[in-house]
Amino acid sequence: MTIRWTRIAPQIALTPALAVTAVAFIGSILWTIYLSFTRSRRVPDYAIDWTEWTRQYDRLFQDAGWSTALWNLITLGLGSALAIVFGFVLAAMIDREKRGEAFFRTVFLYPLAVSLIVTGVAWRWILNPTMGLEATLHRWGWTGVDFNWLAQGDTAMYAIILASIWQSSGFYMALMIAGLKSINTEIWSAARLDGVSLWRLYIEIIIPMMKFTFLTCAILLSLGVIKAYDIVLAMTNGGPGQSTWVPAYFVINALSQKQNLGYASAAAVMMLGITLLVFLPLVLLTAWQNRRRAAA
Amino acid sequence: MTDLSVTEAAAGATVVRRHPRVRRRRGLNGRSIAVLVFLTMCALFFCVPLYVVLTTSLKTMEEIRQGQIFALPETWTLEAWSFAWNEACSGITCEGLKVGFWNSVRILVPSLILSISLAMVTGYALALWEVKWAGTFLFLLFLCAFVPLQIIMFPLIAITRTMGVYGTIMGVAVVHSVMAMPVLTLIFRNFYKDIPREIMNAAIMDSGSFWKIFAHIILPMSGNILIVVLILQITNVWNDYLVGVTFGGFNTQPMTVNLANMVTVSTGTATYNVDMAAALLTAIPPLVIYFLVGKFFVAGITAGAIKG
């Protein structure tokens, strides 16, 4: 009796988590996919018109707002990738120098503890044209500088990228430091004996050795960029016009402003598709890493 | 700022003391100086927004209009802080940020209890007991950990509405727990799977049942991972905006939503000192946690990111 009970108890303990996964994740994803084929507007309408079941997607691909959102996603991804580079430079310096390691780590990481809404509010204030950084620089005599990025559609995205880099560099630095620490210390002394210059050591040996860490960072960055909503809302609220729309913003906008459920669902499904596209390498990477760990 | 740097210097000193080898070996050569100068400049770049926000919040509006963003306040005043906390308008209510603060606290407590207890038990069952399809379930959790909220947003709204918790504190807390469940479960599972088989076998032989072993053996061992997860979850929930704005109703919205409304929907002239004070008030709780127990914070975000 006791033996049987110990068999059943773990299964029972798993039921709540299973239920949450089945309903809140899998069920809800299928629900959204279904809705994306319907004509639902404010309230769900479960009838599918089979003659034009892809109408939401057809409209989506012709929507200028959606293509802006996709372009901005790529811009934001490429721009924020600087945070990985920056994070690596900081990590390499901290790791070589060691002096003040705890201090620098703490300073570079604190933005991560702060809400993106706060980050956005702070940077929007700094970029304020009449009272912020630009006014001060003009007063100092640098009248040529233009930091009024948020007011112009073609530069507003750069402001968001700047804030994202400020916010996330420390995170990549932390991952990179962990990666650097796992590198065998003998490599450093061997390189010194061979008289390899520091540049070549990093570019030809250290960075290739850390390709796994870099890949992890790149995937995490992409997944983060797809979810980017708070920072856009706090800095530009999508504007000026639609110039800083991103897919995450597009979906919320379609859902709450346009009150168009079917349309929002179609955009959300596209978001899921992009997530999976980024996610696939992560799965392969994890499998590869596990195999390597098992072999070691 | 000085307080922070002092604590940090102290923390640095302890680290240095722990590795005397490293400290002794190297002198201060030209390259070291260049690196330290560069790192200090980067540190300044990271500190500038905090400095600007802090000084702006302590200035009067007349002074802010002079447009000297880097200057220290001429007259130091906490007026903006008390206004932001007590009176500032967010939407149509003008009761300040304290409403949002207490909402956030009231969201935080049930969501922590729900998500952590659920993830702990699930992680324990998956790591230490023979469960059918455990591998598949783990893989599913791994996938779910990365699902953006937008994709399941409407169904979750519909479900919470049927449950009658949509627009309430409890609704926000439940959605937070659901969203956090996959990552937290994976973190607990990765922690528990390193518990030696012998301990588990001995415990089972000792006629320990699933729950007895959990209460007497597993729970006492979980101190460290609990702190890590607790900090991860506190900062996640506190800093969240999207769940709060979607699932919170009128007067049940968390502090971040309150702040965003206060800053964007301001009637009349913008009061930047109040905005900055409000931003700092929202940022203070996670920052305090970060500067007090930064080590656990870093452990949490890296665990959540890599293993999640």
UniProtKB/TrEMBL annotation, chain A:
Keywords: Cell membrane, Membrane, Transmembrane, Transmembrane helix, Transport. It is found in: Cell membrane. One of its GO terms (cellular component) is plasma membrane. Pfam families: BPD_transp_1. The chain crosses the membrane at residues 12-34, 69-94, 106-126, 156-180, 201-226, 263-288. The keyword Transmembrane applies. It comes from the Bacteria. CDD domains: TM_PBP2 (cd06261). InterPro entries: ABC_transporter_permease (IPR051393), MetI-like (IPR000515), MetI-like_sf (IPR035906). Its main location: membrane. It is a multi-pass membrane protein. GO terms for biological process: transmembrane transport. Residues 69-282 form the ABC transmembrane type-1 domain. Belongs to the binding-protein-dependent transport system permease family. This is Carbohydrate ABC transporter membrane protein 1, CUT1 family.
TrEMBL record, chain B:
Its main location: membrane. One of its GO terms (biological process) is transmembrane transport. One of its GO terms (cellular component) is plasma membrane. Residues 101-293 form the ABC transmembrane type-1 domain. PROSITE patterns: ABC_TM1. InterPro entries: MetI-like, MetI-like_sf. This is Carbohydrate ABC transporter membrane protein 2, CUT1 family. It comes from Wenxinia marina DSM 24838.
